[in-house]
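Usage example:
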Amino acid sequence: MRPGAQSLLPLLKPRSIAVIGASDDPTRIGGRPVRYCKEHFDGALYPVNPNRKEIQGLKAYASARDLPEAADCAILAVPAAITFEAVQDCVARGIKGLCVFSSGFAEMGAEGTALQDKIRDAALNGGARLLGPNCLGLFNATRGNFMTFSASIEHGRPKTGNVAIASQSGAYGSHLFVLARQRGIGLSSWITTGNEADVDLADAIAFFAEDPETQVIAAYAEGLRERDRLFAALEAARRARKPIVMIKVGRSEAGADAARAHTAALAGSDAVIDAALKEFGVHRALTADEMFDVAYAASRRLYPVKGRLGIMTISGGAGVLMADAAVEYGLELPAMPEATQAKIKALVPFAGPRNPVDITGQMFNMLDTVSEFMDMMLTEGGYDGIAGFFTSWPSAPSMSDKLLAALKRASDKHPETPIALVILAPPGPWQKYEAAGFLCFEDPTRAVAAIAALVKFGRAFARPRRAPAPALAKNALPAPTAATDEREAKRILKSAGIPATEDILAKTAAQAVEAAERLGYPVVMKIVSPDIAHKSEIGGVALDLRDQQAVAAAFAELRGRVLSKAPKARLDGMIVSPMVRGGVETILGVNRDPVFGPVVVFGLGGIFVEIMKDSVLKLAPFGREEALEMIRSIKGFPLLDGARGRLKMDIGALADALSKLSVYAAANAGKIESIDINPFIVLPKGGFAVDALIVPRKADSSS
Amino acid sequence: MRPGAQSLLPLLKPRSIAVIGASDDPTRIGGRPVRYCKEHFDGALYPVNPNRKEIQGLKAYASARDLPEAADCAILAVPAAITFEAVQDCVARGIKGLCVFSSGFAEMGAEGTALQDKIRDAALNGGARLLGPNCLGLFNATRGNFMTFSASIEHGRPKTGNVAIASQSGAYGSHLFVLARQRGIGLSSWITTGNEADVDLADAIAFFAEDPETQVIAAYAEGLRERDRLFAALEAARRARKPIVMIKVGRSEAGADAARAHTAALAGSDAVIDAALKEFGVHRALTADEMFDVAYAASRRLYPVKGRLGIMTISGGAGVLMADAAVEYGLELPAMPEATQAKIKALVPFAGPRNPVDITGQMFNMLDTVSEFMDMMLTEGGYDGIAGFFTSWPSAPSMSDKLLAALKRASDKHPETPIALVILAPPGPWQKYEAAGFLCFEDPTRAVAAIAALVKFGRAFARPRRAPAPALAKNALPAPTAATDEREAKRILKSAGIPATEDILAKTAAQAVEAAERLGYPVVMKIVSPDIAHKSEIGGVALDLRDQQAVAAAFAELRGRVLSKAPKARLDGMIVSPMVRGGVETILGVNRDPVFGPVVVFGLGGIFVEIMKDSVLKLAPFGREEALEMIRSIKGFPLLDGARGRLKMDIGALADALSKLSVYAAANAGKIESIDINPFIVLPKGGFAVDALIVPRKADSSS
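Running the assembly step on the lines above writes:
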């Protein structure tokens, strides 16, 4: 049983810290944390160094075993070769958190990995958590435990706030820290996880999900592992209404290649990661700017569940720009109520009253009316968020406080509505506007994007816990141990509740006719051979056979083709099946992701998936409602939904099949490499798997 | 004949300025430009105010007519009602540039528009150019003529440089100016065009295209008009190798709605504008950040024509992030040559030698080697641009100069290669890195995006002038004056060189059989009725008729359908045409854009355009090569190109048809509302318009 999130407390919020390998030189790896903690940390600090009596003015100890108390945590800044011994010493003294800076472990190959496993096991067996090795440490802004050798701290402490940063990369984690400080983002904690021998990104997220000082989590990830723990952490944050903004690199093939060169870790497919993050409402950011825009906006903790944006502007053009951005980011722009528009026009004839509410530059001297208009937008407009463009008005000393007062008069009555202002101002006025509760941006698009992100969080937080996926059908057959033929695959799928066409194996033309008579015309006929994987390539399929003669002739013809085109192939006979007509071909598939397990893919048949790339994927298992969301999300959905005079297809039956496929795939996660149902034909009523293939997982798969 | 770009010189680079309506109060609209110009302008300044002898310490004049010389330009800061008189005075004194701040013109309705036309005509007839009215003015950074009442100037002059800003919006133009100043972007000029009675954005761009002080043009647009002048300006900038970065608002429907509420100007479709800007290599930016990232990068004037990016990084993760960004922005990431990789590995075994070249944080103390690696990337890597991630290394005083020297040693040998560094540093070191020729960014994605923009410019600049579109076929028929029937449309298209199926009109079944015999079987038959627009909706089409019997039977059947389903419709007979088989259905269309004229649309038939929205458009006219580019750009192109065992279709014939359609549409730009060729069936050899419709322009169209 893995220790709970609270087990990170000794690392993140220690009352006492030992520094193993402490240096008297405050610029060295073992000296920096001593210096930083001396300056900022308000607990006990114990340098450990067998060669010195005193380190940077503090009493030094020869070994962790000699400490006067069991320190809450220890920094290990000693060479890899003696790290194991140091870990043993710490554990023996009862230290529960170890932060290992040292490199020379898994990043250096097999030998290093073995050493890393050894120190991790020593820590865990001793009841301690281990951060790193090869990491840049951590800090908690309240406690002041700057347990890092990053020089970035030297240029200034971060502002204390409610945003936590968790990064798998030390260098990029530092980069983010500096950007956050420059931008005035208030931080609660910062942690880099390095080689992740024990503590990993999921642990950090799980900790911050419970941490009362943290309300927003900014994460940087290179590789995500251990699906269940990761998902539990993401779900814990969601239920605690703490937004996660994540940069996850390796989006492209080239990026993934570079990641493989950089870390040896098994990577899940990026499309799968993306789908997984969406499920939990994680905002995936592409740039640090975007990450901090969203984290900054979220730090106010207002998460509307609807997305109606009201825009107030002193520039018509900026209003258009923000309207564009609103559409781009999925917000709605309902007009002000007619009556309110009339009131606005009556007060200020030159104002644009709709939405954007264009007050024009001429209202510079009518701030009471600006206040009144803002109040109308908040009270009568019914907006879930407001974006206001005031450009450099707050930078004019004569204007700054007056405008702020006017806006605040309106906003104070509506503390539940996030208001993002686009302003230009020196730091002083800027901070006043922020202190009054306004989100401040210099770029109109980024202001709107930030509000859109808040709405996305609001929706993710409001979503009830997913209903558990339906149970596996009682009589579901086990996964096959060898690649199936079509009949076997469909037999298994039917057992899992997925309708499939009936197949009758005919060894002779007479049997084929008999089968067709039983099934009813028209029928299709396909060759069955363990030696022929792609039957249509040798013309092994006959469609739309409408009578006895046609069936008998087709039997002879197909057999002839096998004899001429694949003379050595064994021929087990022919499958006769009902011909499914009047439906839409879809593809239902399952692929195994090395990290996230079985993933279900859905798309329309043929060129739609292959050429138009119009498909959607979702981690298995899931229920019918989620399957319906998948189906509705593809671009070609109108083709199932009766577009342009077509018949409406049975989306419910399709959703059932998708959900049941996902349940079967999840129940057999370890045993199946892939399932292809191609096509699954959806009909106006019902639908059938018409051809299918199940490939079991290779016995020698490594994970 | 419109005056040339040089006619803006008196406004943008005056030696003397009159201020009509000058105020002694330096905070008033008529007082601010006096104050700003007193402070910064090094020419003669003539305040004009009939009520004062002196204005802000300068001799004042009663009227422009009294000035001691014909000032190069005048600022008009008087009420709308007396602006006309002031314009007349200025013109009478020989002033050639008028900058009208006053509002109360076209933005206030019909009366204001009439007044605006009056002042424009007075200016133009007097040989003067008029900027505004209702504008925020302009400045040239070298001359110091801060002819504006924007308070933004008070917080500081811009750095002088080679980027010009042209904005249709005063408020947003000021916003951009302040952001540029904050970011240290060097400006050559800044101009806001307001109501654009005379001088418009195209004029400004044309001026900057010729202006030796300007190398990069940053433009903000709300509505683009007068296609030919705009295109000439964009092309002039392209040929002068001056990149244009443009924010053009109104991208979305909602944005376009807001724009209509804001300006009454007729707007072209955004998709068309987008296509037009692409043609000229304009970079369309969505945010001010993006605008200035690109302008900043471009200000170094290095425009590679190929897009091979080399990445050097001290953090593996940041390398992955930049590789992702490279793919996203269309750059390639070729690996370093094998031999060079071997050299790198021999020098530093822990380095990643491929691309990204990962030098890791451990090379902090090996700067000579960093220099050597950078040199190898530049010399042996064959890269067109380099992105380097060094995070806060330059912020450590001990490190900053040394790293800079190491990088510069390599870069100085390759001044043709743009190098963008991702660094964190205080302003001092930051500026040193910039002065050494490096582009500096804090965000890795933005650094990569900026290089990608340079490559896009390089390609646009390298492109030869488009070959003129082919001439219209000599015997091309005139555009129809009423909506055509299918036969008429195809007759016109054939005359323009677009192949179409042959049609024979049959009034009787016997004639139909005779026609089929002449054309050869199979044939199709369609009803011809001026009263039935959509023949297929009443079943008025019979396909694949293979013999006399089938043709005769179809004739009777189709006539029967008309009689039963549209008993009042006139029936002119039936068209008999050859049945075109074995091809791919495409749609070729023309639509008239109110600003940009005829636009050609291309896509695959049926659901591809309608549901998958897989289409592409281009302004008419264009040649075969450009048509080929269009065809290759759609997602479904593989369906024409032999994907998955299909036959390859005759793309050349399709391109000819598209080009000829564009030529016909352009030649009849004023007369055609739309042309639909649906389908045009492309065959393995050749292709045919199978059905078509031409709708003439409504006689009462306003433009």
